[in-house]
Structure formats: C-alpha cells, structure tokens
Amino acid sequence: MSVPAGKLRHRIAIQEYRYASQDLVTGEERRDWTTVHECWASVEPLSAREFIAAQATQSKITTRITIRYMDGIDASMRIVFAKRGEQKVFNIEGVLADNDSGLAYLTLPCSEGVSINGQ
C-alpha cells in the first residue's frame, strides 16, 4: 500500500547533527544541524487518545510524520517544519517502515521541542 500524493502536503527538512568546526580559543567542538533531505510529508498531531496511549510507554511522542521511503533516516535526526510563518522542530523518536513491503513509506513518531545543543 502506498501513501496517496495528496496526503503528503507539507514540506519538511530532515536534518542531521554534524561536526562543524573547532573553537580556536577553547578547543570546543562546534556542531551544527545540516539539512540532508527536503521532502513532502504528512504531519499529523496525535489525538488525545493516541497521546495518552503513547504516554503509557513513557514516551513524549506528540506528532506522527509520514514520508515516502528513503534510506538513511534514523532517530539521531530531526525534522524542521514551517507552517504559517512558525517554525517547529521535531525530534525523531523512531523509524517505522510500512507493513507491506517496508519500502513504500516511513512513519516517524516525533516529539516536539528543543534538540541536542538547544537548537
């Protein structure tokens, strides 16, 4: 089963945390987020019932994001989503492949908020 194109109506950026540079004075590593993919997605806030069920497993999952399958997506990445002039950052909590082939789409349970390094 594939995801209907009309359902993927939100443009998102998938970012990876990468080494950027080293501070010359303190020697501290400076790391930054780099966009590795931009794609269309379905961004769905969870219902109150789904949220309560997620809390039962000690999770902070607040949103479900669905994208077409692509290699290399993992829970160390984050998603940036801009809607109506507001930018939201979602931490990827897991990567779930579709039940049929595993190659049609990915479901990304996400939590909203500040990521590594407060950015």
Give a summary of the structure in a few sentences:
By secondary structure, this protein is mostly beta strands. The protein has one helix at 48-55, and strands at residues 10-22, 29-45, 63-68, 78-83, 86-92, 96-97, 105-112.
Q: In what order do the strands lie side by side in the largest sheet?
A: 1-2-3-7-5-4
Order of helices and strands: EEHEEEEE
CATH superfamily, by name, is Bacteriophage SPP1 head-tail adaptor protein
Cα-atom Rg, whole angstroms?
A: 16 Å
Q: Which band does the percent of strand residues land in?
A: over 45%
**Residue share in helix:** under 10%
Tally of contiguous helical segments: 1
How many beta-strand segments?
Answer: 7
SSE topology sketch:
Blueprint lengths: L9 E13 L6 E17 L2 H8 L7 E6 L9 E6 L2 E7 L3 E2 L7 E8 L7
Antiparallel strand pairs: 1-2, 1-4, 2-3, 3-7, 4-5, 5-7, 6-7
